[in-house]
Amino acid sequence: MNVVPIPQRSSNLDAEQALLGAIMLNNEAYDIAIKAGLREDDFTEMAHAEIFRAAGRLIEGERVVNPVTLKTALPDVDIAPNLSISQYLARLAVEAVSIVNVPDYADAIIKEWVRNEFSQCSQLYAQAAQMRDDLELADQIEEIDARLQAARARLAGEDADGKSFAKVAPSSLDATLKAKSGEKAFGIDYHIPPLKQLIGPLMGGTAIVVGGLTKHGKSALAQQISRGAADEGHPVFYYSGEMSAEELAMREKARDTGISVKRQSEGALTDTEAETLFHASQKVGKLPITVQDRRCTVDQLIAQVRALKKASRGVMPVVVVDSMLLLDRNRFERRMNEYEFADYVMDKFKATARSLNLPVIVLAQLKKNTIEKDRRYAIKRDVAYFKQAISRRPRASDLYGSVEKHADHVVIVFNPEVVLKDMEPAEGTDEYVFWEDVLSSVKDRAEILLSLSRSAQWPARRTVHWSGVRHHFAFQSDVQRNLF
């Protein structure tokens, strides 16, 4: 492999020298620099990093920092041609003026570090293009992504090394008091009261898994969350690996009008219904929802999410991935089985939620044998038999992979009506009468299960009304909207 040479690091010597001189002039400058986010690794000159480190050790030991004390605390370092360490330190101290500009010096040093990181990453990308080993390439890309995220955080003035309780305790209390007074909601409201009772509002940095069997309504719940957040003005990025953007738009119009997607597709409408759909289309068209219905890899999708975050101008976006097993795979990912890939996807999206401070909702399929419908050893198929068939609620452990270990909440949609319809006996038999009796008791009802949570009490569940035509989970407050 042809190795692309890594360029020499550029430096801002004037800023580094001025800052070190200011520390010797007034030791408070060290604390000011630290509060500005400066780290010893930010210095491009190794000798300057050693001086900064030595100054920190002296200050921590409650000793005065000056050219004499620094000289004794420093290891053997090369400073400058024709200058001893004592002479160099003395010159820095003499040329120092004040500590007023220390934050500016620190900022200039940090930005030079960011430029160097970007330059290094550019060269690493060039090296990656020549790699032929998939594992080596994946490791290289992970390293580049991590370095770029760190550089982005430093440039934005974020606390890459953590946030103290002294800083976040007052700000979090302020947010809570604002929410209590109704001045500002804490998190993102998505207008689904039963779900909010279980997990609260959507919070930045959280990863939520919505699981369910086919046709149980997990996509409908994710779309309803998206709609609620969009109605509140939050941009939504919806990855749809199965349905087209047009079908998703039709579902939203079905939610508002009660005109099914099937009838919309067939054009079987009255003039009044066509006008109703026209107005609904105008309303839906104003929602800040972007749908990506082209298959993407995990990395391609995360790159699009980052672009959305940048374009959101301070408004927290919501990301929905429908679903984790409907993502394309690169050569490295194709080596994974479905369980390994599911775990890998959740790990990546949890990291994305944290680094970009936004909520990510990932849809997950339950294992096919979660609801056992083949009861070959049953003596008879009576009411008890059909009730038993819908008594087993899915759990987080029924999801593909160990995705629950990365999730802040695991929500599962369970629709007993779907389970029973898949067991329909022959019409006219005694079994059909028993089946119909049990079916009527759960008709148009579904359950939202909180199967696991890091911050809420679980397990817990809420029973809601389900409208298959509208693809909508309804509750008492929906009566006024004619959706219940």
Give the SSE layout:
Elements: H1 13-25, H2 28-35, H3 46-60, H4 67-73, H5 85-95, H6 102-128, H7 134-155, H8 165-181, H9 193-199, E1 207-212, H10 218-231, E2 236-240, H11 245-257, H12 261-266, H13 271-285, E3 289-292, H14 298-311, E4 318-322, H15 338-356, E5 360-365, H16 383-389, E6 409-414, H17 416-421, H18 430-442, E7 445-453, E8 460-467, E9 472-474
Parallel strand pairs: 1-5, 1-6, 2-3, 2-4, 4-5
Antiparallel strand pairs: 6-7, 7-8, 8-9
Description:
Residues 1-7 have low confidence and may be disordered. The protein folds into 2 domains: 13-155, DNAb Helicase, Chain A (Orthogonal Bundle); 178-481, 3-Layer(aba) Sandwich (Rossmann fold), CATH 3.40.50. The termini are far apart. By secondary structure, the chain is of the alpha/beta class. Strands 3-2-4-5-1-6-7-8-9 form a 9-stranded mixed sheet, sandwiched between helices. Helix 1 (13-25) packs antiparallel against helix 6. The protein has helices at 13-25, 28-35, 46-60, 67-73, 85-95, 102-128, 134-155, 165-181, 193-199, 218-231, 245-257, 261-266, 271-285, 298-311, 338-356, 383-389, 416-421, 430-442, and strands at 207-212, 236-240, 289-292, 318-322, 360-365, 409-414, 445-453, 460-467, 472-474. It contains 18 helices and 9 strands. Helix content is 48%, strand content 11%.
